[in-house]
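Re: weekly structure request thread

Next one in the queue (335 aa):
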Amino acid sequence: MGPAAGSVRARYLVYFQYLGTEFNGVAAIRGSQRAIGVQNYLEEAAKRLNSVVPVKFTISSRTDAGVHALSNAAHLDVQRRSGQPPFSPEVLAEALNAHLRHPAIRVLQAFRVPIDFHARHAATSRTYLYRLATGCHRPDQLSVFERNRCWALRAGCLDVEAMQEAAQHLLGTHDFSAFQSAGSPVTSSVRTLRRASVSPDLGSPFVLPQENRLQFWNLEFESQSFLYRQVGFAWASRDGGGPEELGHYGSLGLGLQVRRMTAVLVAVGLGALMPAQVKVILESRDPLGRHQTRVAPAHGLFLKSVQYGSLGKGRQPGKVPACTPMTEPLPRWGA
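Done, posted below.
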């Protein structure tokens, strides 16, 4: 008999958030590299669950280095020793948080799910948020609390109506080859973009009243899935959040369809493109075109939510429930 004889394997869906500044993306980095992913810390914390079989996180939505997540998701299996009942979802989330060794990662909530549930394949919707700031002429004009949280533009304003018009050309089912890398290994570049919006932010709580020259803007994109493994050139910003430098500026090994679409919409907002040109770019299916090779900086992007149909309806998966007293003690980790 193996070590797992008589034990029960339980699968959980876990929602978690992180500030991506210090991570080389969400995926685990294996080997002796100095780079490290969010998944490395999650799996290190999961070792304290004393599962019979090592716990591995299967991440729903991949994010690149520097990208943040308000709510990402993953499934994991925990197999306790024979005679020990599965952890309740509440205790599992509490235990992972207790043993996480990085302050920029937090487990939000956990659900018990069927053993054949898959966090990536079962997702029905993913929403990304991209934050912009305008009117930032120098890096020191952006609040230290907003650095690495938005793309700061020198421009004092954006033509938001033109951006909204341009975004309409991206809606629906299209071949998004123009927004991925040349030679991408994906079998199909067809995706359905359900929502693409550009709207003013009510204002950052970290900006002082005398700094009212700064304006913040939100771009949101919703789809079941997006294209990954893009290579392009960034519109870089100085000091992780200062004003941008227009043009080709450093290659990216990993990027997002969302960041390329954002760069194109910002070009429209700055008057470098007309809204109708976005449709031409999309229909060209050419990833090497002049405008679509530009990629918005990673630090302005947030994975906002991952949805799973009817799972957890009434409890709003990914949203932290109201505080309630613990009814089950934390497990004894040394047992």
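The chain has a mean pLDDT of 83. The longest strand covers residues 68-79.
Next request, please.
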